[in-house]
Amino acid sequence: MDKFIPYEQFSDITYLAEGGFSEIYKATWINEIISPDFLNE
Fold it and tell me: Which pLDDT tens digit goes with each residue over 11-20?
């Protein structure tokens, strides 16, 4: 995926962990449908 997704397009944002140079979150992407082919890459 190579496009910027604005923060406002996510819901249920949950902090997972912190590494050396980053923080990891998971979220639900609203306003878009992802192709099953993309998920299987």
Answer: 999 999 999 9
